[in-house]
Design a protein that fits this description.
- This protein has helices at about 15-25, 45-60, 80-100, 115-135, 155-165, 180-185, 190-205, 245, 265-275; strands spanning about 1-5, 25-30, 65, 105, 140-145, 175-180, 210-215, 220, 230, 255-260.
- By secondary structure, it is α/β, with parallel strands linked by helices.
- The strands form 2 sheets. Strands 1-2-3-4-5-6-7-10 form an 8-stranded parallel β-barrel.
- The radius of gyration is 18 Å and the shape is globular.
Length: about 290
């Protein structure tokens, strides 16, 4: 697995690869725009996108993923919010295409009281609309599983599978497995047996082939708490042994696994060092592996 972390795009998105290398990343996750505004996004300049691509190679970043705006709700029952969300998601796909990033990770959405069936159907419809209106033929929409608080959808992998099956563009959909969300949703993978059962569940629902990324976060909340509260690796309820099988799983060798906590350089360095200590026969991969997106 290519290990990394979520990097700031302050001042310029082109600076993210250098920041990633500085903390020991092989992969990075970024926002391509403000994560908390749906309107008035400044277009990416050609010089900025070119510099970003050059810096990926210069700073040995092998994989990149974009996290979409937090406010997007592709399941919204409100017409005005749905219109804004779809337009913002199209922009996320288009910006990824310009940056040469193949994966846009997003939270599936919340049904806001309209029910699971309504919400899942609307997400699929929104994804179809977005793909049809975007200029992003090389980009995957990657559904992130959730902790499942309130009316938020995507806490079970069966729900995510339902979205993929209902979409006319199922071949453009991927999955990002967040370890904290998975645990908070009630999947216990802290033992080898539990990890094997989680993999069977993933394979029988969304399919392992659809997994395109991991978010590597420990959990402050208990198993099944539905609390989306991240913690340092090994310091939460999942614990170190919960991550060992995943970072050693050869099926995911070419996928990115990014930290989202604690969001500061020293913490990222510490957590990356902790994760690498779990890898059997770990050898620094940068010189041996070619950069790819």
């Amino acid at each position: 697995m290519y290990l990394g972390a979520h990097m700031s795009i302050a001042e310029s998105v082109a600076l993210a690869p250098e920041r990633g290398e500085a903390v020991g990343c092989e992969a990075i996750q970024i926002f391509s725009r403000s994560p908390r505004m749906l309107r008035n996004t400044k277009p990416l300049a050609a010089e900025e996108t070119a510099a970003f691509k050059e810096n990926l190679a210069a700073h040995h970043i092998a994989r990149v993923m974009i996290h979409a705006n937090y406010l997007i709700n592709l399941a919204s029952p409100k017409a005005s919010m749905l219109k804004l969300s779809r337009a913002a998601f199209v922009e996320e796909l288009d910006r990824a295409q310009l940056l040469g990033v193949r994966d846009v990770i997003f939270h599936p959405g919340a049904h806001m009281g309209k029910g699971e069936a309504f919400g899942l159907r609307r997400i699929a419809e929104s994804l179809d609309w977005s793909f049809d209106h975007a200029s992003a033929p090389d980009v995957f929409a990657v559904l992130e599983n959730t902790a499942g608080a309130g009316s938020v959808l995507g806490s079970t992998f069966e729900q995510i599978a339902d979205v993929a099956e209902a979409s006319s563009h199922w071949e453009r959909l991927g999955v990002c497995v967040d370890t904290c969300h998975t645990f908070a949703a009630g999947y216990d993978f802290r033992t080898l047996e539990g990890y094997a059962e989680l993999m069977r569940t993933l394979d029988s629902s969304v399919g392992l082939f659809r997994i395109r990324a991991f978010h590597l976060n420990d959990s402050k909340g208990d198993l099944g708490s539905h609390q989306d509260r991240h913690e340092n690796i090994g310091k939460g309820r999942i614990g170190l042994e919960g991550f060992r099988p995943l970072v050693n799983d050869a099926r995911f060798r070419e996928l990115p696994g990014c930290l989202e906590f604690p969001g500061e350089d020293a913490g990222y360095r510490r957590n990356l060092k902790t994760l690498r200590s779990l890898i059997e026969g770990y050898v620094p991969p940068r010189k041996a592996r070619r950069s790819r997106n």
